[in-house]
Amino acid sequence: MPGKLWDELKSRQTRIESALKSHLDSLTQDAPEPIRAAMGYSLMAPGKRLRPLLAVLACEAAGGTIEQALPGGVAIEMVHTYSLIHDDLPAMDDDDLRRGMPTCHKKYGEALAILAGDALLTLAFHVVAGVNGPRTAAVSCLAIAEGAGAVGMVGGQTLDLIADGRISTDLASGGRESPVETLTEVTGDSRPPLARLEDLHARKTGALFRSSLRLGVYAAQAERPEGVNTKTLAAADRYAAAFGLLFQVTDDLLDVESTADKAGKRVGKDAARGKLTYPGLLGVEESRRKAAELGRQAVTAAEELGSPLLASLAQYVVTRER
Ligand code: GRG
């Protein structure tokens, strides 16, 4: 992360790290030690904490404080961590390395990794249910459920695994088609490949970014007598949509161009599996142009929100190396 942006974000990241630890410690005090250990191993591993940062920056842009934003930020990082643990399992993406460390199932075995993911997802709702007042709690639970569930992240993961041939259904004859053909066969969706790639990623990655921003706006505004400002919420959603696709384009580019050392995870796996990706569909140069354009869209939305930090964060993602 560029020095100046990092300096501005560092104190917030420190607060996020300690909020993650304190929520996890206090809310799992009475849980069996092995599940606490597996949850803590993955949650406290060195992630970028992008989603909690987005919640904090959106909250500040909407007139709130970091204290108000932290529970939502902690909750969304718990959901994100659960998704990574489950995504790394042999039945899904089958990875050994995550955040520069052995994946949860490599360290603790598959059964405990599945349970750690389940427990982190559940704990996220616990975290937001008890703070910031009843209206904030209700809309925050809704934001998490929408982002994480079957129309959001789980739906996107389902489409991804269908395209990959890892979910077979009565409709998919399995294995021999391209990812797009497999998806068409199973979903009946025959829009052009780019539109479908973007729909997949808007669900799989973008939906949680939207939840992150919304959690921040709700934390700042939901208890106000006048309620949530719809213009703020719409700008937050626009930022999240552009940021989510931008993040995915650059994730795909990293898979083509980075090394495991830099990225902290296995690279080169998309092409090896013939996955549906931006570089695969558009080529590397066009994918870079796409990233720049999405970066501009996110910056415009950040300006509407009055947040130079959200603008800088989007610019950082355009050129990120991990
Ligand atoms: C298992 C329901 C379920 C969903 C999994 C998130 C996800 C869906 C899969 C992860 C696969 C992947 C690499 C997606 C690309 C975008 C992404 C979420 C990358 C990881 O997020 P970062 O870069 O990770 O923010 P850190 O470790 O920094 O938090």
Give an overview in words.
It is built from 16 helices and 2 strands. It has a two-stranded antiparallel ribbon. With 322 residues, the protein is mainly α. A hairpin with a 2-residue loop joins strand 1 (97-98) and strand 2 (101-102). The protein starts with a helix and ends with a helix. Geranylgeranyl diphosphate (GRG) binds at residues 47-48, 50, 80, 83-84, 86-87, 92, 99, 153-154, 157, 204-205, 251.
Brief sketch in words of this structure:
The chain is mainly α and 322 residues long.
Strand and helix map with partners:
Blueprint (H helix, E strand, L loop, with lengths): L2 H25 L5 H11 L6 H12 L4 H22 L9 E2 L2 E2 L1 H5 L1 H20 L4 H15 L4 H11 L15 H9 L5 H29 L8 H28 L2 H4 L5 H4 L5 H5 L1 H22 L2 H11 L4
Antiparallel strand pairs: 1-2
Bound molecules: geranylgeranyl diphosphate (GRG).
The site of geranylgeranyl diphosphate (GRG) has 16 residues, from helix 4, helix 8 and helix 10.
